[in-house]
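WARN retry 2 of 3 for item q-0093 after timeout on previous attempt; input resubmitted unchanged.
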Amino acid sequence: MLRLSTIADLETLERPLHLALGVFDGVHIGHQAVIGAAVAGAEESGGVAGVLTFEPHPIQILAPDRAPRRILSSLEHKERLLEGLGVTVFLVLEFTSELAQQPAGEFAAGLVAAPTLRQLSAGEDWKFGRQRAGTVALLESLGAREGVMVSAISSVMMDGERVSSTRLRQALRDGNLKAAAAMLGRPYAVMGAVERGAQLGRALGFPTANIAVGDEQLPPDGVYAVVVTATGEDRPGIANLGVRPTVSGERRLLEVHLLNFEGDLYGVDVEVRFGRRLRGEKKYADVDALKEQILCDVAAARALFDEGEAMVC
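OK item q-0093 returned
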């Protein structure tokens, strides 16, 4: 994946560029429709598919009081997801108050002037520029002068409602992983580096990897069947999300015990895909009672994986 940081960087590209525009928080199926148009165009022309996005999320600058507390995908996770969709150019513009005040026409004119640009794709209601005055119609008007095709993509609907990052975030808060997976076209996942913990899981006979997930949205606390992608391999596991009230009761942690795995993943970036929730988090009388419960949880997770029922789809 080639990562760029300014629109001027697009001048370094030599093959026809097909560029999807948006924030793409979560990369849900609505986003995938926009990105898919760019990927399809690139395949047809023998060019490259790219995504232009912003970091941080524009609403954090424009209306911080209304900004969501949690994101659905970190920039690094978003890059990995986009790569899986066939995107090879990732243009990340730093969203500042200065960029927010740039006139829409000026932003769009600079974009369509990129030498190899052949196509722009965006949601039909996408807005940009100062006071969000920029529209797809403006892109179409300027693009026509430069020979750039503009694809306006209709919203993707599900159960009579538009699929959106807001709707997806609410499903996760509600613990509705089935609805979240439907809106994503895949199980919900977070990504983070494995960091050293207090080694309590190892002392109980169930070594765990503590995942540093940053500001990514998490489902409700509890124990989940999960699939962890680490060092290029998918491994089944069981995750505890919460404050560990029996042994700690402090900060919220995501800990994962990998089934049938021995090794050291410290410092490795891993993706954790959430499957079925086995139970809620609970405080047990003592460590021995907790250990007995973990044995039951691991057995339940193994049974789900054996039956092919561990992941929500």
